[in-house]
């Protein structure tokens, strides 16, 4: 199929998105450009009056700050956000179309004793506090050097927190680490404590799912004569247990998808994010779960999600979460619209409304069945909304802690970061995929050339392969990080 010069998504839209760099005098969407428009940026398809709403994806993305001629470039010089602070939301559920029947898809996963299915069979080394982060890394590296090939990996997840924290801030750190320790991809976990830290080992273990505790070993560094040797012996025990696991064929509904975008551009909301939305729909229609987070990056589009709330209680929790996050910004003297990032702006995204309307498409059309707090675990089929900020590392860590066994991460500009679970990097445009093959796992730019159906089939096949053990680019590059949301004072 031929690729047009620009894409107009909804008949109500008064702007289109350039699919390549356009020069003055070129024709796109029935108008002649009066100035150059870069790929991913917007052009007016009809005159827009000063103060008039600019419409993209069928919804307002802000207001024109001056009159805009047809064929003009529409960006931060003539478009501004219309977002305010907290809002009063009304429960107005909309009918959801029935999911289309699809051919059953399977993958080869590790079925755990609690019924959850893992995409990897690994041993994780988790420090309680930053003081023993390097110790944890040394233990993991030594363990993998001795056991490579017996399981899928031995990995340490260093972080700088766990001490000099108080109250909810400390509780958040503990909740994230406990949730990671209970993750199905971790066939075994070594918790490494120092001894004098605020995040005491016994309190941390008490928060781990009881069904997972037999797979946990503990090392208290201050009590050990040789913590590296003791850690090596404990790793040996965990690897012996983990090595007995074997993959078996399971349905797509046993997958838990985390969906995330980072380094977005003007094409993210047109190619990669809608494509990921189709993956969310396939998984949830099969009885599985999808998890959406980045709460500040749904501001301006929250109504799209709330209209899909399964019931009034879920709606009320979603509204409280969104308004609570807005209040978090306002209490720190910051506007709720202090987004998009410089990279987003360079890529063509002008306002937070525009970014959010593109971002929420990763959630597809599934019912919103649950809302959970930071450090919480997703337990219901369907779509779960998770409390976490937009920061890539913090929110992706929260997705893994919530139980995501695979993360679909869309990007228009690229990033090498990887996280505790396989993280599939999906480029919004073919140029990025070609330029950074060492980072990117899938080119969603093919949507523009081959159509949504063919691209969706290709991505679903790639997801099944990765869930079955094929490494992502981040895994091949040994990019595995966690980041914890620091919200309180530091002693």
From TrEMBL:
Residues 13-80 form the SAF domain. GO terms for molecular function: lyase activity. CDD domains: SAF_AH_GD. Pfam families: GD_AH_C (PF20629), GD_AH_second (PF04295), SAF (PF08666). Keywords: Lyase. Belongs to the UxaA family. This is Altronate dehydratase. It comes from Sphingomonas gilva.
